[in-house]
Specification:
2 helices, alpha+beta, 101 residues, 7 strands, four-stranded antiparallel beta sheet, three-stranded antiparallel beta sheet, globular
Length: 101
């Protein structure tokens, strides 16, 4: 599996990140304070694109990128590896409604 097929100038669509988070069978509560209100940082002027951060790790000298989300109550950050998010998005295409007749 190619772990990092992204570059620093790439972004992820906000709606795809929401689909990824909604599609995971994980708790949505903050592990620090149990709040359920999260913020996903978006690019300034492009609120439909999620900010990607370097994790501080690299694979074959390529930075590992992550999507960070922040608890609106206590400020705790949780992160998800971008390559995993992209793989989930690719394997779970957005369902489009069939046109009604």
């Amino acid at each position: 599996m190619n772990h990092e097929n992204v570059t620093m100038d790439e972004t992820l669509p906000f709606q795809d990140v929401i689909r990824f988070l909604d599609g995971l069978p994980v708790k949505s509560e903050c592990p620090m304070c149990s709040a359920s209100s999260w913020e996903i940082p978006v690019l300034k002027g492009k609120d439909d694109q999620v900010v990607l951060s370097e994790s501080g790790h690299s694979i074959d000298q390529v930075p590992v990128l992550e999507v960070k989300i922040c608890c609106n109550n206590c400020g705790f950050y949780r992160s998800h590896k971008v390559s995993v998010v992209k793989l989930w998005i690719a394997n779970n295409p957005e369902k489009t409604e069939a046109p009604s007749e």
